[in-house]
Design goal:
It is flat and about 85 Å long. It contains 14 helices and no strands. The protein has about 300 residues and is mainly α. About 80% of the residues lie in helices and about 0% in strands.
Length: about 300
């Protein structure tokens, strides 16, 4: 088990390093930030002076070396726009992203488990058709469009909930439900497919042959085995939510990391973009590392392989 853990940690460190390197070079493709930081009538001398001040006049390989040396010390530079620590700006936004992503994750997977167990315990075809119709319709609607529909209905028409910003729980409901309903559709289909696969296994037939009830067989025997594929997908999806709720944060003006990265890209604020990508990638990698370890605990065949 120790060897398995060390191997996964080594993979995680290598992945984060790769993301950091790719982010450094790719953000340079967005253009020269001096064009946005200076007025249009700025002279060539002023542009050259600003490039020197920002360190952009040096060769790219030297910029990367200096950046990597500082990054290993936790210094990702100062924001070109806000003149404060890039990493500090990202970490200020991280709690908002965590709040939204974790709420949506818990709601989505909770609704899916309730619906999936209801389908198995009841055996109702009409209920299955209803849930699957809801799941297919929800997955067919893009997140940004669904978010706008939620705002139109609950904020504009009914005036029940606020549509923008972060505040009390009432501000969290619409963006969280926008993400959670999409997660619900995914997990419901996965859970139902996992139950269908377990239904054909010998241990299920044996449990029924021993006289166990349908509910006990499902909850005690089928559910733990059906959780294995769910754990893997849930870990990946949680990482995606934490690092990729950009659209939802933008639609609802939610002050999270994703929205900060989008704003920084349009402003060509290199340090903030890189710091934001790094933080989200570290969170994503850590979650996947924990999922790998959890999967190894649930299924010993994984770590033995």
């Amino acid at each position: 088990m120790t060897r398995f853990v060390l191997f996964r940690i080594g993979q995680s460190v290598f992945t984060v390093f790769g993301v950091l390197t790719a982010a450094f070079f790719l953000v340079r493709l967005s253009g020269d930030p001096t064009a946005l930081l200076l007025p249009e009538q700025a002279t060539a001398a002023e542009v050259a002076a600003l490039r020197t001040e920002l360190g952009l006049d040096r060769p790219l390989w030297l910029q990367y070396g200096l950046f990597l040396g500082k990054a290993l010390q936790g210094d990702f530079g100062m924001s070109f726009r806000q003149h404060s620590s890039a990493l500090g700006l990202v970490l200020e936004r991280l709690p908002a992203t965590l709040e939204l992503a974790l709420t949506a994750f818990v709601l989505g997977i909770g609704m899916a488990f309730v619906a999936g167990l209801a389908l198995r315990l009841s055996g109702s075809r009409r209920l299955r058709a209803l849930f699957y119709w809801i799941a297919f319709v929800r997955q067919a609607i893009p997140i940004f469009w669904f978010g706008l529909l939620m705002i139109l209905l609950f904020s504009v028409s009914l005036r029940w909930l606020p549509s923008l910003g972060r505040g009390g729980i009432e501000h969290l409901i619409l963006p969280a439900l926008t993400l959670a309903t999409f997660e619900f559709a995914l997990y419901l289909r996965l859970l139902d497919a996992a139950f269908s696969e377990q239904q054909t296994q010998d241990y299920v037939r044996t449990a029924y042959a021993k006289g166990q009830t349908r509910a006990r067989t499902i909850l005690q025997h089928m559910l733990p085995n059906a959780l294995l594929p769910i754990v893997t997908v849930a870990g990946i999806n949680l990482g995606v939510l934490l690092g990729g709720a950009v659209v939802t944060e933008t639609v609802f003006s939610w002050p999270g990391v994703g929205r900060l990265i989008v704003q920084s890209v349009s402003q060509r604020d290199y340090p903030v973009i890189i710091a934001g990508i790094l933080v989200t990638s570290v969170v994503f990698v850590l979650i996947n590392l924990l999922v790998d370890l959890l999967y190894a605990v649930l299924d010993p065949r994984v770590r033995l392989s």
